[in-house]
């Protein structure tokens, strides 16, 4: 807040009024005329904090909530109106309007959230959100309305038939995913809900719905004997890598004590066709089964032989994180620095050597060699950066600093 907004104990009262007036006008100018939206937003916040009793500032912020050119300023204005002037009827009316008329989806979503969280005790608000969740043409309004119905009212938000219709009839995949999450969270004891969620896990056309359905099955129905084999099947057969990734995460986290799951995760490290899934499997193996015989060796193999650089990089990072005290890990990182074909892997190797094996006598000479001779300029630059940041030798700094000047 500008210094001249703060009242002082000395001086003529009329002079202080003039200073305060000037400060107010200066803040209003900044809130509307500054080219930087962050400056406008901060000025708005200062006005809302220091002039809560001003009718003029209330109207001023209402106007900003509609007319500012940047969505984040309009969004902040809405939040300040609901925080400081919630009881004003005009505030509720404005927030409802912005939920359907603002040009930016983030502002529309924020308006829906403000309605639910600030006027949840008004019966007409829950009715309004139910209507929007079903009938709004804006998918962002539908999705946020569903989220807020579930979050603010729980099972009392709507009937089972209503939420079932949203799961089945909603056209947008991300909105259907929210509906699946809601029905599993609040109506999991209903017999038909399990079958509906299992059907969505297999047959929904959108990957996000299938993923959320699998998470719900693992979270709410893990004790049922058919759920484990069902999720295992989806971890292999689903066509989308992200769904398979979610499936193996749920298997590892929910059934890591089941012997077959360890072997299943090992297999996914090797056999899944997608690098993201193989990388996820490597991380799960490293975090949940680090003491199991063969885990270290398999991850070592993936760090060298996987066809995708991201899996090799991820495997090397997991080895450093969990097994940096083993001599084989240091040897592997050095090898990857010298021999991996991908520059991202070699850059990571440089960084890990400098961080974990900084005091090893072989580290600095090797990184100096890379800084001078590596074929890739980005790897050379990474090596130079580590030398500059990690070693305080003046001769080294003077020799290599010029790369960054």
What would you note in describing this structure?
With 405 residues, the chain is mainly alpha-helical. Among the domains are: 1-102, no CATH class; 325-405. It is 75% helix and 0% strand. The chain is built from 23 helices and no strands. The model is unreliable at 1-11 and 15-19 (pLDDT under 50).
Topology:
Blueprint: H1 13-33, H2 37-50, H3 55-67, H4 71-84, H5 89-101, H6 105-118, H7 123-135, H8 139-153, H9 160-169, H10 173-186, H11 191-203, H12 207-220, H13 227-237, H14 241-254, H15 259-271, H16 275-288, H17 295-305, H18 309-323, H19 327-339, H20 343-356, H21 363-373, H22 377-390, H23 394-400
Helix pairs in contact: 1-2, 2-4, 3-4, 4-6, 5-6, 6-8, 7-8, 8-10, 9-10, 10-12, 11-12, 12-14, 13-14, 14-16, 15-16, 16-18, 17-18, 18-19, 18-20, 19-20, 20-22, 21-22
């Amino acid at each position: 807040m500008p210094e001249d907004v703060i009242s002082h104990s000395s001086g003529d009262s009329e002079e202080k009024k003039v200073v305060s007036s000037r400060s107010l006008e200066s803040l209003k100018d900044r809130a509307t005329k500054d080219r930087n939206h962050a400056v406008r937003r901060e000025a708005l916040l200062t006005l809302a904090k220091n002039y809560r009793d001003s009718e003029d500032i209330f109207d001023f912020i209402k106007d900003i909530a509609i007319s500012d050119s940047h969505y984040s300023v309009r969004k902040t204005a809405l939040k300040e109106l609901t925080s400081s002037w919630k009881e004003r009827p005009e505030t509720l009316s404005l927030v409802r309007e912005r939920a359907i008329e603002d040009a930016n989806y983030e502002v529309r979503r924020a308006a829906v959230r403000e309605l639910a969280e600030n006027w949840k005790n008004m019966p007409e608000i829950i009715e309004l959100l139910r209507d929007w969740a079903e009938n709004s043409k804006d998918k962002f309004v539908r999705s946020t309305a569903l989220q807020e119905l579930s979050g603010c009212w729980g099972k009392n938000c709507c009937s089972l038939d209503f939420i079932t219709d949203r799961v089945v009839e909603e056209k947008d995949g991300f909105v259907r995913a929210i509906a699946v999450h809601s029905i599993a969270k609040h109506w999991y004891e209903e017999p038909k809900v399990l079958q509906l969620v299992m059907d969505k896990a297999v047959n929904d056309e959108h990957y996000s719905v299938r993923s959320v359905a699998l998470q719900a099955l693992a979270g709410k129905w893990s004790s049922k004997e058919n759920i484990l084999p069902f999720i295992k099947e989806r971890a292999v057969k689903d066509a989308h890598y992200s769904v398979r990734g979610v499936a193996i995460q749920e298997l590892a986290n929910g059934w890591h004590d089941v012997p077959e799951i360890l072997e299943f995760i090992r297999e996914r490290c090797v056999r899944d066709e997608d690098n993201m899934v193989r990388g996820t499997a490597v991380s799960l193996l490293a975090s949940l089964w680090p003491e199991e015989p063969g885990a270290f060796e398999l991850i070592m193999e993936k760090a060298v032989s996987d066809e995708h650089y991201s899996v090799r990089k991820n495997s090397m990072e997991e080895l450093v994180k969990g097994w940096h005290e083993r001599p084989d890990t240091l040897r592997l990182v050095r090898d990857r620095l010298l021999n991996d074909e991908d520059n991202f892997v070699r850059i990571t190797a440089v960084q890990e050597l400098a961080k974990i094996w900084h005091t090893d006598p072989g580290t600095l000479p090797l990184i100096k060699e890379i800084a001078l001779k590596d074929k890739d300029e980005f790897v050379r630059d990474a090596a130079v950066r580590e030398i500059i940041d990690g070693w305080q030798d003046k001769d080294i700094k003077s020799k290599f600093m010029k790369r960054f000047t």
